[in-house]
Amino acid sequence: MSAPATAATYKFTDQDGTVWFTDKKLTQNRFAQYEPFKRSAKSTAQVSCVPAGQADHLRRLAKYDPIIRAYAKSYAVNQGLIHAIVSVESCYDANAVSSVGAQGLMQLMPETASELGVEDAFDARENLRAGIEYFSMLNKKFNYNHSFALAAYNAGPGAVEKYQGIPPYKETRDYVAKVLKKYREFITTPASMRLSSGSSTASP
C-alpha cells in the first residue's frame, strides 16, 4: 500500500509567545518546518495492567468513558479507537508512566504534552483532550488510515512518512496490532457490559 500524500507544517513563535502554524512554505526565515512530536517508537505503560483484573479494568473504562466520548465527538474520531489506544497505552491508569517517560492515560511524551498546551499530563481530562486532539491530527494527516495514524502515534509521523507506511519496528507493529485488536473487542462488546460499573456524564 502506498503512503498517503501529506503536507509539511511550518511553525513560528511570535515575540509575545503566540505560536503560529501554517501549511504554506513562506520565505521568512522565522518559519521553520515543524515535525510534530517527533520521537522513536515508545514503550507503553503496561505495568499498569498487572494489578488490574477485568472488573477493575471495566471500572476504569466506565470512569473515563464520558470524557472520551465527548472529546472523540469534538475532534471527529472514533470513540472505540480512542478507548483501544487508552487501554493499550495505560490500562486506563491516569498516573501511568512508561519506561521512556510517557505520561497519563494516553501516554503523552512531555514534549508532546507541552506542544498541545497540557499543564498537567496526569490530569485525566487534559491528557485525554490532548491525546485525542493529537490522534485526530495524525488521522487527518494520513488520510484517515487508522493503521498509519496509530503507527505515527507510537513512532512519530516522520517514521511513517519515511517508510511510506508502518515502520519496520517490532514495537510499532505490535502496538498497531494490539490497538486494532482492542478496537475490534470494544465494538463487539455490548455497551451494557462495558459500562456495567456506571459512569457520569461529562463534556469537554
What this model shows, in words?
- With 204 residues, the chain is mainly α.
- It is built from 8 helices and 3 strands; from the N terminus they run βββαααααααα.
- The chain has helices spanning 54-74, 79-90, 110-115, 124-141, 146-155, 157-163, 170-188, 191-194, and strands at 9-13, 19-22, 32-34.
- It has a 3-stranded antiparallel β-sheet with strand order 2-1-3, with no helix packed on it.
- Mean pLDDT is 80; it is low at 1-8, 25-40 and 197-201.
Summary, kept brief:
The chain has 204 residues and is mainly alpha-helical. The protein is built from 8 helices and 3 strands, in the order βββαααααααα. It has 2 domains: 7-36, no CATH class; 39-194, Orthogonal Bundle (Lysozyme), CATH 1.10.530.
- The structural class is mainly alpha
CATH architecture field of the largest domain = Orthogonal Bundle
Number of helices: 8
Based on DSSP secondary structure assignment, what is the total number of beta strands?
3
CATH topology annotation of the largest domain: Lysozyme
Q: Can you identify the CATH class of the largest domain?
A: Mainly Alpha
% residues in beta strands: 5-15%
Helix content: 40-55%
Query: What does the main sheet amount to?
Result: 3 strands, antiparallel
Mean pLDDT: 80
Spatial order of strands in the largest sheet? 2-1-3
- How far apart the termini lie comes to 37 Å
Supply database-style keywords.
204 residues; mainly alpha; Lysozyme; 2 domains; 3-stranded antiparallel beta sheet; 3 strands; 48% helix; 6% strand
Show the helix and strand layout.
Layout: E1 9-13, E2 19-22, E3 32-34, H1 54-74, H2 79-90, H3 110-115, H4 124-141, H5 146-155, H6 157-163, H7 170-188, H8 191-194
Antiparallel strand pairs: 1-2, 1-3
Helix pairs in contact: 1-2, 1-4, 2-7, 4-5, 5-6, 5-7
